Amino acid sequence: MRLSHGLVLASFLAAASSASASILDFTASSAHRQGTVRFEVDSMDASKLIVTLTNSAMTDVMVPVDVMTGVFWDVSGPSLVLTSVSAILNADSAVHFAPAPAGGVVGGEWGYGGSLAGGGPANTDYGISSSGLGLFGGPTFPGPDLDPPSALDGLNYGLTSAGDNMGTGNAQVTGGRPLIKSSVVFTFMGLPAGFNPAASINNIQFQYGTDLSEPHFPTPGAAGLLGIAGLFIGRRRR
After folding, report:
1. Which domain holds residue 50?
2. What share of the chain in percent tops pLDDT 70?
């Protein structure tokens, strides 16, 4: 299904996957860019939220504005007060143009904001980012600063695409900055009892580049269409 402004719905799945865990999977595309995020209540500890962010595009990254640097969202109902626990490379991901981090820990290069007061893309209140974007003063996850000067700064440790040829593109994406290909898993603590991401998380926005004026999507109007379309794509069966 193709939507306006070049936005393509890849998938939208929102469901309780079991009696003990709730999952929201969201994927959206704009032109050659594609992002995927999973919000999941930890099946072993319902106070923990696990967020898996992936630059899932299969196209080559040629310039900095093709590097994913964050994800933003809103929450229906009471505000969440979350504590950053960890940020670790996903199992099939790696750091390029810098040494491999011990234990896959990249927390010193990422920050979380839970009180952005509508300052994120599309007036979002919550976000995770590897770049300051004028919103994040520094990292909030445990881990060393892997690439001085102090994070959060510039394109460093943003997510290049799953299909990126690391040897092509301009200097910033071929060795000028350390980059992650292509996914990071973030863990938070502080979820209220019974929290269901599929029912509560909305207005998800993928951010690219190092400035809020650079690409982010879906647009607010298209996001509404995505949510409606998702109802027809299907719900994960128990």
Report:
1. 4-233
2. 83
In a domain, 193, yes or no: yes
Over residues 203-223, the mean pLDDT reads 87
β 126-129/48-55 pair status: unpaired
Whole-model pTM? Answer: 0.87
The Cα–Cα gap between 24 and 125 comes to 18
CA pair distance 67, 81, nearest whole angstrom: 28
Burial of 238 per CB tally in 10 Å (0-12, 13-18, 19+): exposed
Give the residue from 36, 77, 26, 86 showing the smallest Cα distance to 58: 36
- Tally the domains of the chain: 1
For the cut 70, the answer to whether the pLDDT of residue 238 exceeds it is: no
59 φ/ψ angles, rounded to the nearest 5 degrees: -90, 160
**Has residue 172 been placed in a domain?**
yes
Is there a domain that residue 160 lies in?
yes
16-42 pLDDT, tens digit each: 333 334 899 999 999 999 999 999 999
What is the identity of the amino acid at 15?
A
